[in-house]
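worker-03 picked up job from queue 'complexes'. Input manifest follows; two sequence lines, order preserved.
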Amino acid sequence: MSNIPDELQYTKSHEWVRHNEDGTVSVGITDHAQDLLGDMVYVELPEPGRQLGAGDECVVVESVKAASDVYSPLSGEVVDVNDAVVDSPELVNQDPYGEGWLFRLQPREDGAGEELLGAGEYQELLESGD
Amino acid sequence: MTLRTALHEQHVALGGRMVDFAGWQMPLHYSSQIGEHHQVRRAAGMFDVSHMMIVDLEGARCREFLRYLLANDVGERPRPGRATYSCMLNEQGGVIDDLIVYDMGEDGFRMVVNAATRDKDLAWIDLHADFFGVSVRARVDLAMIAVQGPAAREAVLRAVADRVPSLPDLRPFHALAGDGLFVARTGYTGEDGFELILPGEQAAPLWRLLLRAGVKPCGLGARDTLRLEAGLNLYGSDMDETTTPLECGLAWTVAWDPPQREFLGRGALEAQRDIGPPRKLVGLVLEQRGVLRGGQRVICSGVAEEGRVTSGSFSPTLERAIALARLPAAADGACQVEIRGRLLPAVVVEPPFVRKGKSCL
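worker-03 finished. Artifact:
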């Protein structure tokens, strides 16, 4: 059974979003996604300062099996990236919602986001067999 | 329809992630694929390879037939137990399949060919066997377990010693049969190991015996990274009917002597040998982070023609990306691989990358 924390929001493409107190959001891939991809061996992160639109390809994660794009769940500016996953891609497998986070975004105030899902809705999406 | 091996229930019980492979439901991995890879390099792992096709050949002219069918030579005289790795070529010298054939002495020969090519292989073998009066029997009743790694020998001895008393004397690249169990000291990982062939209904008990002897189950994912590190070709990726053995690093498997041995594809192969093959298969090591994958373009310095990665992955032993690639014959030294629109530097090396657990770089 895949772990889906209640306090996070999700996308249909298996990213998670955490709303931080400073107004930024942290983004990563879900436990389900890391489990599907298997052992992570390479992560390519966006440059800080890059402007992203919702749905833009912004991260590449590669497992020993396959390469996969990660899409930005919201529009905004990349303010921070997790360099630790570049050196240790396995963090994405070991702790997808914690140390395996990928980047932080300052959302654009007027920016329209992808439609984010709550934990229950994401659970339903997985059960409906993506 | 997907086929299931005799060990299907074992895979499911062990949490195997089942995928379709050449029409068979096979485990890709059970837990961490990289963990399974290290298990084979450092101790012992086992793979269900029952999807591979076992073909038994019998008949008075069996040896003569194989000396015509295969580019490598099983030899004029019987060498019971001896394994021979060979390509089976078409008339143009293209590789129909690669295989291992075991000399079973008076009982004929046993051949193990790839699962994905079974139908065309059988058709080709049948086509030529007829003339030699050789009977060809596909042994769908048999299962096959590969036990590989530095601790494989000890575990296999413990599990089957009572059934095969002379097993301790079995040398690498040889096989012996006893009590319904065929044991070959061969494999596809670059480690010492054994391939065990036995009736399907006996496979699960042996699998459990090996588990108890400390052998961990490993999936096709680890099998692929292990064979890549060992510099062993994968049929369909690194070679096919459009490539000759000379273009896929397998010139060493072509037995040119004796010159009077007429094998299928010999004429075309000799012609290519004399003018020099236009392409070659090499190893690549990526100099920076990234992952090499089959299909990526390779740009070689000073050579107009491009090359291509035929199979690539992340090497768990070396912790960097490695690949086999087909390059123009003139390519030498440095090259660049295109990954997502960027050209990354790679070094050309001679495979293997890893042998018996140690880096060859």
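worker-03 released lock.
The radius of gyration of chain A is 14 Å.
The interface with chain B takes residues 38-39, 41-42, 60, 62, 64-65, 67, 86, 93 of chain A (CB under 8 Å).
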